Amino acid sequence: METGEEFGPWLARQLKLAGKTQAELAEELGLTRAAVSAWITGRSTPRPTVMVDIAKALGTDLGTVHMRTTDTQAGLPVTWYHRPGYPDGGRELGNAAAFAFDADVQVLARETCQNSLDERLAENGRPVRVRYTLHELTGEHLDAFREAILWNDLFPHYSAVSELAGNQKVGRVVDAGVRDMYEKGRLVLLRVDDYNASGLTGDDYTDGKFAAVVRRQLESLKSGRSAGGSYGLGKATLWATSALGLVLINSTLSNPHEGRTERRLIGRLELPWREVDGRPYAGPAWFGRPDPDSPGAEVARSWWADEETVERLHLSRDSDEPGTSFLIVGAHDVASLEASTSDLDDDMVEEDGDEDTRDIRRMHKRLVQALGRDFWAAMTGGGGRLPLLEVSVRALRNGGEVVVEETNVDPSVEQPSRTRALRAFYEGTTVDRLTEAGQVVVRNVPLKLPLSGGAVGGTLGTHQAVLLVTEAAGDNDRPINQVHSLRGNRMTVRKATVPRLPLGTNPFQAVLLAGEAAGESAPFAREAEEFLRAAEPPEHDRWGQTEELTLRWSPSAYRRIEGLTKVVNNAVRELVARPRRSSREGGEALRKALTVKNRPKAKVPTGPVIPVLNGLDAAIGEAGEWRITAEVSIPRGDEIVPMVPVALLDVRSGGRPKLDWAELEAVEGCEVEDGTLRFASGVRRATFRGATDVTSHPVRTALTRLVLELRAGKGE
């Protein structure tokens, strides 16, 4: 039998919800106000016979009063509260935080799974379990869900946004989402459930995890120093993935709030400014119980729902384990249109040839791919060490129909070589040199940590990160010759191909464990964890120059990461290099007895050949300029076309702004004349370096990404 809330706090909340005072309840019961006050404060409890009268006064049954596992239905009903427009006339045409991410289920998987890892209850040693459920609703199932979320109350707001759709992006997205639901008679729900996590603890309004997620923007309250997030932006991916801007939440708390832990519900809607029935609304709205303590009891707060309500909202959880369920209403995957479709089944494309951004089979496949790519290390255990994470993905239709069976993401399938390498490290079976197939070689690589506080120069200490290298496991292990870098939460942060590998190098995969991922005994592990976390942008997909790194350490602190990268690449090249054989090694007598015909030399192609950019190292200089060193590969030919290096800024839409060069010089195999690279005949490889002109940068360099192109230049 479920244990309910303490009687006093429960009764106090029911009186607020019913709009009754303690004196009014006492009068209805024929008792003194002091008796009711004693119940509220916990000094006494009512007799069983009085419980019957309390149930009548609250308009509920006796079982609800005895069990106290849910609120009564008396008083203020669950409804939508829309934030009023600002009195100064200000307008917000969407949540700016959501523009940091695309409508991409793979980005959603990365951010939500990272958040679940950050909130794992580590005390019991068990992994956090995350399940992604894609659920398509049609027909009566869709009608029932719209009724549960009070769609008729929301529709005027969506209509107002659609009228403004041509003027701004968020309105166009919402308008398309509503039209798809009505024209195709369907709605896609994407639910993210985690278990063995902390849940959204804390008050509705004051500092706490609940308020940080539901009420606030750009606030990150993480449970540990190895947490992945630090910007407070990751939660915006939930709303960015909803074409309707709507997310419903059901949380089971690890620490009680108001004496309760289960079925804490709230909904948040993100719409742009709009005007409905002559009244302006600022943007966001909340789905909940009106708060009697708010002016006019208008503001909606979370409420403790019953099982029936949770089921109608498609928010039922598998167990009473702490954690949170996020339901994305109207999920779509616009980024899937840009992804390669070569690995997708033919029936994943609609008959009219259009690719469907709401195809739950396609989304299922992309979720599995992203989770295996980014979280393979967190799902890997060994040597008595349990994984940090377990993940599965499933796809349903109308509750009972299974569209795609539940897939448990297996790291040994998604990342076989790296999983083998990490497991060998945990089990202590690594070697110093690769001599046989399947071996894993280990090497310590130094990260020299800078002094904090803006000091230029000096070293706090040297952190010994761990480099693991092993052979690639067949054609499925792609792309090859890469280093995956990660820290304490074991999410892949950086993926980089090792440049300038010796010819004939066998395909390999490598893993860099830095910070607390290198082990508790690694020197300066905690300090390295903090430093590398500060070096991650909001996307958490690289280590480099960031504003936080500059403010907390120094403008040149990122060079320590450059130094680590160079050491790692050098170590990898050394570990995978094939040893040279001496002239006496092998069957010398047999070789002398054989006559080997020399193959004729390949004919050199005639006509001009185009050099190709083969490798690029880029970093931000102390003055805010981009500094690059580029390697060019040149095909064999009797004429090499001169090339012009062009620096561009990567942007989400429109043309890429071009940057001017402040410096451009040849290093090897080429010459620079008036910004054009010229190559000598017979050269197969060339290197040049350059620095951009800061005055040509349209925005601050730390907030940009660089694209380098080689364009065919004029010969004269």
Structure description:
Helix 1 packs across helix 3 and helix 6 crosses helix 13. The termini are far apart. It is elongated and about 105 Å long. The protein is 26% helix and 27% strand. The protein is an alpha+beta fold. Strand 13 and strand 14 form a beta hairpin. The chain is built from 19 helices and 28 strands.
What's the gyration radius in Å? 31 Å
Amount of beta strand: 25-35%
Give the overall form.
elongated
The largest sheet, given as strand count, sense and whether it forms a barrel, is:
12 strands, mixed
List the main descriptive attributes of the protein structure presented here.
716 residues; 28 strands; twelve-stranded mixed beta sheet; alpha+beta
Summarize the structure.
This protein has 716 residues and is an alpha+beta fold.
What is the topological layout?
Elements: H1 7-18, H2 22-29, H3 33-41, H4 48-58, H5 62-67, E1 79-84, H6 105-118, E2 128-138, H7 139-148, H8 151-163, H9 169-184, E3 186-195, H10 209-214, H11 236-240, E4 242-252, E5 264-270, E6 274-276, E7 279-290, E8 300-301, E9 303-304, H12 307-312, E10 323-331, H13 360-375, E11 389-397, E12 401-408, H14 411-414, H15 416-427, E13 440-450, E14 459-471, E15 482-486, E16 492-497, E17 508-513, H16 525-534, H17 547-552, H18 558-576, H19 588-593, E18 608-609, E19 612-620, E20 626-633, E21 639-640, E22 643-649, E23 658-659, E24 661-668, E25 670-673, E26 676-679, E27 685-692, E28 706-712
Parallel strand pairs: 2-11, 15-17, 18-21
Antiparallel strand pairs: 1-7, 2-3, 3-10, 4-5, 4-10, 5-7, 5-9, 6-7, 7-8, 11-12, 13-14, 14-17, 15-16, 19-20, 20-27, 22-23, 22-28, 24-27, 25-26
